[in-house]
Write a structure and sequence with these properties.
single chain, alpha+beta, 10-stranded antiparallel sheet, 10 strands
């Protein structure tokens, strides 16, 4: 039983759902004096959306119009926040999960994006959760924060009332699958050799 444990573990890794998604994260190029430097933005898209090459998405409060069916399957998650040394959870947090219901009248996410061949995004992003919002546009793959606001004191709130100007890239996070499988193979080989020595 112990001999096949590494093989079962490898099979479990390979059997992970393909819909784990493709993650893009913010990589800052130039900070702006009018906003905090430690912006964090993570977007995860379905493989189907990325392979399609572009995405036009407008997620709003459909319930106010009598329909609460959330059928979009392209954006799996969006997380935006500013990390602060004195704030364990960060500031100005916007967090959207797969098929999350949007409740507020002015809350929503609007995306007009192209998935570039070099693993970067281009286009425009607008997100609003009722207490924090941001808008960024790109020229090519270089995004600029057009505006960001929040009801919070820290981050793009009262401390930075004219929050805008930082530039950066939204780049794909490489999947560690090849390295992980190689490491798993080494562990399996070591484990098998160790078992043989103990049996001898």
């Amino acid at each position: 039983m112990l001999r096949i444990t590494p093989l079962l573990f490898a099979a479990a890794l390979l059997a992970q759902p393909a819909e784990a998604g493709v993650k893009y994260t913010w990589q800052q190029i130039e900070a702006s004096d009018s906003m905090p430097a430690n912006l964090n933005l993570e977007l995860v898209f379905s493989n189907k959306a990325v392979n399609q090459g572009n995405l036009s998405l407008n997620i709003g409060n459909e319930c106010q119009f009598g329909s609460c069916e959330f059928t979009q399957e392209s954006l799996l998650s969006l997380r935006y926040w500013y990390g602060a040394p004195d704030s364990a959870g960060g500031a100005n947090l916007i967090e959207y999960g797969y098929r999350t219901e949007v409740n507020g009248l002015f809350q929503g996410i609007q995306l007009q994006l192209d998935f570039l061949s070099d693993g970067k995004l281009s286009g425009s992003i607008l997100a609003n959760n009722g207490s924090s919002d941001f808008r960024m546009n790109s020229v090519g793959s270089l995004f600029t924060m057009v505006s960001a606001n929040s009801d919070e004191e820290w981050g793009c709130g009262f401390e930075y009332p004219e929050c805008s100007g930082s530039t950066g890239l939204l780049a794909e996070v490489p999947e560690p699958s090849s390295a992980a499988l190689a490491g798993l193979g080494l562990v399996a080989a070591w484990f098998g050799r160790r078992r043989k020595r103990q049996a001898a």
